[in-house]
Amino acid sequence: MTRIREIMSSPVITVSPRNSIQEALEIMRENDTRRLPVTDGGKLVGMLVQHDIEKALRSPGRIPHTPVEWVMTKQVYYVSPEDTVTEAARLMTDYKISALPVLDSGALVGIVTDTDLLHLLIRLIEEKDSN
Q1: Closest CA to 48 of 67, 34, 62, 31
Q2: Looking at the whole model, is its pTM more than 0.85?
Q3: Domain ranges of the chain
Q4: Using alpha carbons only, how large is the chain's radius of gyration in Å?
Q5: pLDDT in tens, 88-115
Q6: What is the DSSP letter of 73?
């Protein structure tokens, strides 16, 4: 049984709720990512995905200087390093989300994305096909 710790990305690039959405978009571009956990004082307080920023920038009254906390998702689903990949995949499909922060005793230690799950699927299929 594959555990989250085996496929998660770590360390995690994060953004503060006080960063502007323009700053967050630049961080995403620089790091080739579409998702950022939002932390405040080391505590996970939200998730921001590129789609949230793009949608916000098309909304009246939202400008590039709008703080991340105004557009981030505040109800964050997460997993632990010891959870199974199946548990993460179920959460992601049930709630239609593309990434889950990985928390260990409340500390953000990683992130698992839909791409991580696809990489695992490819590896498993290739292993099966080679046997």
Answers
A1: 34
A2: yes
A3: 4-130
A4: 16
A5: 999 999 999 999 999 999 999 999 999 9
A6: B
